[in-house]
Structures are given as structure tokens and as C-alpha cells.
């Protein structure tokens, strides 16, 4: 089942959103509890603590005023004004204390009635009962003080002592009530502060826990994304680079079930198609030149129709192969030809030629665009012919082992013909069987030139147009002007002697002088020049022809062209 990448991304996003919601909910709860404790402290507990502290201060101030008045009363000369001032301050402090206690009771009631803030209702209920006790104790202390002043004015020592004793008791009572409230309030405030601190610590721990969990989850999600998304892409990239470098055995494995897996399958199918094309090229490359196979597979060569181009065509043939084949077994013939064709095909391909076909013991090849440049095909064909001729000695050395013979080995020779000119190139044949080849007069001329080697005793004959295109790269000499079978127009033919600078210069000069005299009908000069060529095959042919024309002058063509009667 395919799981799209979008679904994976959506799942990861949803997981992160859920985690964020959980984090927000827990943080909100902790903040709510913490805010509640802070609100209870700031709105109720701390103000109550401050108010009770103020009441305690006022009561302590009243006690100080009492002590001052007692001290003033002991003086022989009493300062009435000072005593009255202390009495006034005593009363004022009492009024302030009662007002603060009333305010505290009101604040406790507000806290108990509050719904938005959670408070310690038990402790506040105790405070609600204790605060009036402070007020009562303070008022009793105030009344005892007033009675004491009255007794002091009347001058009754016994009564004054009793009242004073009662005053001290009331003082102690108010201190006890204050102590109770302070202890209760401190305990409540401390508990609220501790609870707030605990909630703050809990929130801190929770935040760190969630942060670590989110980090671990993030790493896990990153690992999942890497495994499911990045690694398959990296494998595809590695496979692409391998194919780019020519390795078509690569196959990328998909561990997921998403679009990347589909892309991987498509990549593997593509590589399989490329492997199949390579197999076709390797297989048919043994029958058809690999460049033609590649061009047809890639639609760079027209699968139908033909084009007219200037190309160079090559034919070669084994000398005396018919009689040679009669002396060998069928297996020997096949081994002989296979080894011969292997050696001869190598120079053709090395010099960018297209090996067109094997015809019995003959080889046909051609050079030209788009397989070579526009002007280099003639020189490449000549180089190939020279290299094939050079490999002939190597082939002869192989014959004993190849045929299993030490004596009676066949004499092996090669004749080659090369012609350059217009040809028709394309896929030629029936609907069911076609071959990419060249046809035209140039092809026929190359074949005729190969056969003309028998006439002149040469090894490689080339056409005039071939010589014109390749003359800067080769050494060649003009042999004759001939009219080949099947053509009415005469052509000048040349013998290929070697690469530039490899030819026999003296032979070339002597033969050229003899040929010029021959064409002018100067038999004596021609004979003398050809004689200087020694055992040269074409020169001996021309000497025989001069002798014949001397006896039969009427047979010489007016244009000096020799008609070849054999193919």
C-alpha cells in the first residue's frame, strides 16, 4: 500500500501539534495554580500580615504610652500637659488599631467569599475568629487603662495597685491574642509561599521534561525523515552517478512505500531499458557497426529513406581464396576467415570506418559524415588500407597454428580498392529485412578498382577524387586512365604507396615520366622511363602494352584511356 509523502509530513506535523497542545495545556495548568497562589498572597495573605503587623505596632505604642504616663505620675511635680498628650496619643492608637482590625476582618471575609482565587479557608476561618479577640483584648486593655487613670486621680494607693495589676494582665492578654493571629497568619502565608514555590519548581521540571522529550522526539522524527526521505534520495543520487559513469548493473532498492519508491521503480526500469539497449548494441554490434545501432536506437539516423553524401568506399578481396578454400576443411575455412576478418576489421574501426559487410572473403567498408569529418574520410580510408596491408604479414605468421599445417600453407594476398564520391546512404532492403549501407556509382567504382589490381599487379588502387582529398596525407602515384566495366566516363586511378613521405620517390618520378610519354604516344621515351622502374608491376604492364601498340597501333584509343574488360 502506497503511503504518500504528504501523509507522512501531515502525520509528523500532527504529532508536533499534539505535543504543543499538551505542553500548552500543562503549562497553562501550572501557571494557573501558580497565579492562584500568587494572587492569594498578594491580595489577602500579605495585606493581612501587614495589617496585623500594624495592629501589633499600634498596641506596642499604646503600651509605651502607658509606661510613659506611669513614669510621669511618679514625679513630684506632675506635667499635666505631657500626661494629657500621652493620653491623647494612647486613645488615637487604639482607634487606629480597631479600624485596622475591622479592615482585616473585612479582608478575611472577602477571601472566604472569593471564587476566582483558591485560599486556605480553614486558616482564614480561624483568623476570622481570632481577629475579634484581639479587638476585645485591646478594648479591655483600654478600659483598664482608663480605670487606672481614674484611681490615680483619686489617690487611693490600694485601689491603684489593683488596677495596675489588672492593666498588666490585659496587656499580657492582648499580646497573647496578637501572637495567636501572627502565628496563624505566618503559617498560612508560609504555606502559600511554599506551595507557590513548589508549583514553580514543578513547572520548571515539567518544562525541562517536555523540552527533553520534544528534543528526543525531534531527533526520532529527524531519523525517520532521514531514513524514509533523505536516504532513498541519496541512494537514487548514487545510482544516477553510477549510471552516468557507465555502470548499468546498478539497482536501487526502495524500503518505503511512497512517491520516492515509485521514482526508484521508474529509475530501475529506466536502467533496465538502458541495459537492454546496451545488450542490443553489444549483440548487433557484431553484425552491424555499433555507431549505426546507437544512431538508430537514438533516432539520430533515419530509419527509412536515404541521403546523398560524399563518402569514401572501400573494398578488399583475398587473392586466390577460391582455390585456397578447396584445399581446406569447412572448419579450417571458418577459422581462416574469422581470424582474417578480425585482423582486417580492427584498422577499419580504429580509423572510424563503418564495416558494412563481409561478402565471402571480401570486405566492404565506408567512411564519411556523420561518422567522420567532411574532408578527412578519404585519408582515414587510406590509412586503414595501409594498416590492413601491414597486418597481412602477421596473419601469415598465424596460419600454421590456425590451420595446423607446417607445409603447404596457402599463399595469402590482398587487393584493395578505394573510391570517393557521391553515394546514397540509408536503410535499404525489404520491409522485413533492411541494412544500413551505401549504394551508387562510387561503390561500384571501388569494387572495380579492387579488381583492377589484378590488371596492374598492385595492392591498393584509389580513385582520383580520393587522391585529391587525401594527397596531403599520403604518397601515391597515378597509374593510368581507365574505363571500368559499367561506366562510359574514364577515371584516373592511383596506387597508394604509403603515408606521406613513405613512398619510393625515384619510382614515382620515373613512372610519372613514362606515363606522360605513353599518353603522348612517345613509345621510346615511355619505354625507357618504365624500364627504369625495374620489376614494378604497373611499369611491366605498361611495357607490354607499348609493345602491343607498336604491333597494333590501330587498337590504341584516341584519348589514351584503357578499357578494363573484367570486374
Q: Can you give a write-up of this model?
A:
It is a single chain. Helix 5 (259-284) packs antiparallel against helix 6. A hairpin with a 7-residue loop joins strand 7 and strand 8. The longest helix has 88 residues, at 157-244. The protein contains 14 helices and nine strands. It has helices at residues 5-73, 80-113, 121-154, 157-244, 259-284, 290-297, 321-327, 330-350, 377-403, 441-456, 464-470, 505-519, 523-531, 537-551; strands at 306-318, 354-359, 362-367, 414-429, 434-439, 460-463, 474-483, 491-499, 562-563. With 567 residues, the protein is of the alpha+beta class.
Specify the number of helices: 14
Provide the residue-averaged pLDDT. 81
Topology, number of strands: 9
- Regions with pLDDT < 50 over 5+ consecutive residues? none
- Write the H/E string, N to C: HHHHHHEHHEEHEEHEHEEHHHE
Percent helix among the residues?
55-70%
Structural class: alpha+beta
Radius of gyration: 63 Å
Give the overall silhouette.
Answer: rod-shaped
* Strand content bin: 5-15%
Amino acid at each position: 500500500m502506497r503511503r504518500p509523502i504528504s501523509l507522512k509530513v501531515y502525520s509528523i506535523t500532527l504529532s508536533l501539534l499534539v505535543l504543543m497542545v499538551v505542553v500548552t495545556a500543562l503549562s497553562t495548568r501550572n501557571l494557573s495554580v501558580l497565579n492562584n497562589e500568587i494572587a492569594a498572597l498578594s491580595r489577602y495573605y500579605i495585606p493581612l500580615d501587614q495589617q496585623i503587623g500594624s495592629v501589633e505596632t499600634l498596641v506596642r505604642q499604646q503600651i509605651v504610652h502607658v509606661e510613659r504616663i506611669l513614669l510621669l505620675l511618679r514625679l513630684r511635680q506632675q506635667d499635666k500637659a505631657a500626661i494629657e498628650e500621652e493620653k491623647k496619643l494612647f486613645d488615637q492608637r487604639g482607634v487606629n488599631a480597631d479600624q485596622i482590625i475591622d479592615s482585616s476582618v473585612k479582608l478575611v471575609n472577602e477571601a472566604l467569599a472569593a471564587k476566582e482565587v483558591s485560599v486556605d479557608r480553614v486558616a482564614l476561618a480561624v483568623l476570622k475568629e481570632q481577629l475579634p479577640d484581639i479587638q476585645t483584648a485591646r478594648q479591655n486593655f483600654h478600659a483598664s487603662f482608663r480605670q487606672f487613670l481614674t484611681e490615680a486621680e483619686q489617690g487611693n494607693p490600694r485601689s491603684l495597685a489593683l488596677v495596675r495589676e489588672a492593666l498588666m494582665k490585659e496587656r499580657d492578654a492582648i499580646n497573647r491574642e496578637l501572637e495567636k493571629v501572627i502565628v496563624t497568619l505566618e503559617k498560612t502565608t508560609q504555606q502559600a509561599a511554599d506551595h507557590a514555590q513548589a508549583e514553580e519548581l514543578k513547572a520548571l521540571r515539567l518544562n525541562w521534561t517536555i523540552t527533553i522529550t520534544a528534543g528526543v522526539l525531534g531527533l526520532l522524527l529527524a531519523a525517520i525523515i532521514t531514513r524514509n526521505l533523505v536516504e532513498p534520495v541519496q541512494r537514487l543520487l548514487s545510482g544516477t552517478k553510477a549510471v552516468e559513469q557507465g555502470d548499468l548493473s546498478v539497482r536501487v532498492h526502495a524500503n518505503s512505500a511512497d512517491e520516492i519508491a515509485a521514482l526508484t521503480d521508474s529509475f530501475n526500469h529506466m536502467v533496465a531499458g538502458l541495459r537492454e539497449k546496451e545488450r542490443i548494441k553489444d549483440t548487433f554490434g557484431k553484425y552491424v557497426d555499433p555507431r549505426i545501432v546507437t544512431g538508430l536506437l537514438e533516432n539520430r539516423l533515419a530509419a527509412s529513406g536515404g541521403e546523398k553524401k560524399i563518402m569514401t568506399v572501400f573494398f578488399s578481396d583475398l587473392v586466390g581464396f577460391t582455390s585456397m578454400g578447396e584445399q581446406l576443411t569447412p572448419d579450417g575455412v571458418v577459422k581462416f576467415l574469422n581470424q582474417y576478418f578480425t585482423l582486417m576489421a580492427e584498422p577499419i574501426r580504429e580509423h572510424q570506418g563503418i564495416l558494412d559487410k563481409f561478402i565471402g572473403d571480401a570486405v566492404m567498408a565506408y567512411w564519411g559524415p556523420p561518422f567522420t569529418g567532411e574532408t578527412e574520410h578519404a585519408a582515414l580510408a587510406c590509412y586503414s588500407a595501409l594498416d590492413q596491408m601491414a597486418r597481412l604479414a602477421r596473419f601469415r605468421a598465424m596460419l600454421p597454428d590456425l590451420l595446423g599445417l607446417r607445409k603447404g600453407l596457402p599463399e595469402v594476398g590482398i587487393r584493395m580498392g578505394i573510391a570517393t564520391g557521391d553515394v546514397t546512404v540509408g536503410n535499404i532492403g525489404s520491409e522485413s529485412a533492411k541494412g544500413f549501407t551505401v549504394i551508387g556509382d562510387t561503390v561500384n567504382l571501388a569494387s572495380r578498382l579492387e579488381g583492377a589490381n589484378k590488371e596492374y599487379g598492385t595492392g591498393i588502387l584509389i580513385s582520383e577524387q580520393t587522391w585529391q582529398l587525401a594527397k596531403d596525407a599520403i604518397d601515391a602515384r597515378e597509374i593510368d586512365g581507365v574505363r571500368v566495366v559499367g561506366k562510359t566516363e574514364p577515371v584516373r586511378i592511383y596506387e597508394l604507396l604509403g603515408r606521406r613521405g613513405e613512398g619510393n620517390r625515384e619510382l614515382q618520378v620515373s613512372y610519372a615520366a613514362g606515363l606522360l610519354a605513353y599518353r603522348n604516344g612517345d613509345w621510346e621515351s615511355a619505354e625507357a622511363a618504365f624500364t627504369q622502374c625495374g620489376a614494378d608491376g604497373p611499369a611491366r604492364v605498361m611495357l607490354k602494352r607499348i609493345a602491343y601498340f607498336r604491333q597494333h597501333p590501330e587498337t590504341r584509343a584516341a584519348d589514351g584511356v584503357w578499357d578494363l574488360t573484367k570486374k
